[in-house]
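re: ur question from earlier - yeah i can do the single chain one, its not a big deal. heres the input i used so u can compare w yours
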Amino acid sequence: MPAVMLLVLLLVVALIILPIWMIVKIRSLGSASERSDRHISDLKHELNELRDELRTAAKAGPPPTKPTVPATAFVPVAPMVAAAPPSLPPAVVVPVIARAMPPPASVAKPESVPVLEAIVPPVAPPPPPLLPPRLEDEWAQLTPNPVVIRRAPAPTPVRRESILSGINWEQFMGVKLFAWLGGVAALLAVAFFVKYSFDHGWISPQLRVAIGFIFGAGLIVGGVFLTGKGFTTPAQTLVGTGVVSLYAVTFACRSIYHFEFFGPVPTFLLMALITATAFMLAVRLQAQVIAILGILGGFLAPKLISTGVDNPAGLFGYLALLNIGLVAVALHRRWFYHVALGAAGTVLTMVVWAQLFYEPVKTVTAMTVCLGFNALFIGTTEVARRINRHSPLLSQTAIVLPAVAFCFAWYFLDFPAVAARTGLFFGYVFLVSLGCFFLAWREKLGGLIAGAAGISAVLMMRWTAGSFKPENAPVVVTVCLVFCAIYFAVYLLARRFERATPPVLWAAIGMPAVALAFAFFLMDHAEPGARPALLFAFILASDVLLLALAWLDARMPKLHLAAGLAVFTLLSIWTASHLTPALLPWALAMYLVFAALHTVFPLLLERHRPAATPTWWSQLFPPLTLLLMLLPIFKLETGSLLLWPAILLVDLIAIGLAVLSASLASVAAVLV
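and the output i got, formated as tokens:
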């Protein structure tokens, strides 16, 4: 019983007397601070008056001195009679304007006869006193047109300050440091008190959490009250400590005491309310630390109240609202790194969810979540740009999300059931690539397009290696050609708006090159190799895309030569591996088509762009075609009459090339 009384007394002192004493003390300090501010204001006013007097004295110029003119000159000064009234002195002012010095004047005394006055050499006037007397009126009477010589102020030396010199160490050590330490001490005091009450059972659980809620709310109210009094740092410390205390008490109600009221939904709503309150207080108090605490508590809330049952709609819907809130706060206060923190928390939550709950049947949900958050953070960059709040950190954060989505695509391929859904998987890859295209367009980063092309090609290779079946060869061909067409269209669009940077060009070239590599992969299987229509159409489409790029872009003069050599290499491999008497007509037809294509194209390109490529490259392919035709002769046991008309056509192609290029090299090569 004495221990309980002592504990109650300590609670009264800690929760009632101590806050009252702190408020009284703070108010007294506020009065002293106001008196100091008034005293400083008075001193500033006096200092400004002294500065004004100094400026006035400097503008008045030096006091009047004896007139100076050249040494050989004599100035007659005649006496003059002063005008009425007779009470004035009988002297009259005669102005004398100097030639080399500021225009001083002299006062001549009346004499009975003219006087010749010699002028001494000029003498430098003495420096003006620090505080000269006010002589404006007298000077104006003596000189009708005074000339003031103003000296330019001496340049103020520029003082370079280091980063550390901008920190007010006195304020940091005397105010902020101890305020933060006080907040940490208060939080530890609450934690140890709760732990001590747990161990000894002095206070019922209901009373414990009630005290915790009252304490946390009291800290927030006290912090808001101190903000109005000008104590920013203590106020932010109290509010931050109060937010953390409310999170901790809410978690205890759910996970430790298991109160019936604090089910998943009420607890989740209460934590969401605390998070929203933290964001609003952060905006009002301009306290980034409170916003960070709100972000931390907001992302920890689903984990703290987790029941072990999957609810992706509730979880990711909550995360979407949380990210929208912190994006609004970040754009309003220009705290752009909060968006990066939100993206990091979102990605971490997605990874944890995938490890705990993902199954192939939830693939559509997972893909929707990835694409949704991609759209959210890409949209954030666009909104920031429209309201003139754009930052490179926002763009970098938006770029990270497509990279994460591609990583999830790699993860999906670990499940054969997902890899078997070709349209769903590559539709997801295309939509993620579309986000990369938009970012590349808005941020003028062509490397994003090249990166998306490279990752897409790697995913296609992994998908083919893990789930390829010979009967699925048309699917492989279709996927490759679709992505080739996509990146070729991107190149055309970029070229239309003069944004076809080298990365965009390489992405457009890389996809047909990958397609030719897939054609080589298909040749390793008997069934696709025995389908020449599918295989040669695939090779021809890839070759035509490469030739179109060589035609459109002058930066790749040797592209069509490389494409021709790759195509003839594939033809020779197929001939050596899969040629049969039944497939010989297909082989001869393809030989002639590719020979004519790569013979005529260099000639057309030379006329289209004369300095692009030498014409002798076109003379390589008729001899290569004849060499290919030798393979069927040696491979097939029985000859075919179709070979000789094909050879004749190749000779005609060589002769026509010789006529057009005015060179006999191709004719000599085919004859040999």
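The longest strand covers residues 74-77. not sure if urs matches, ping me
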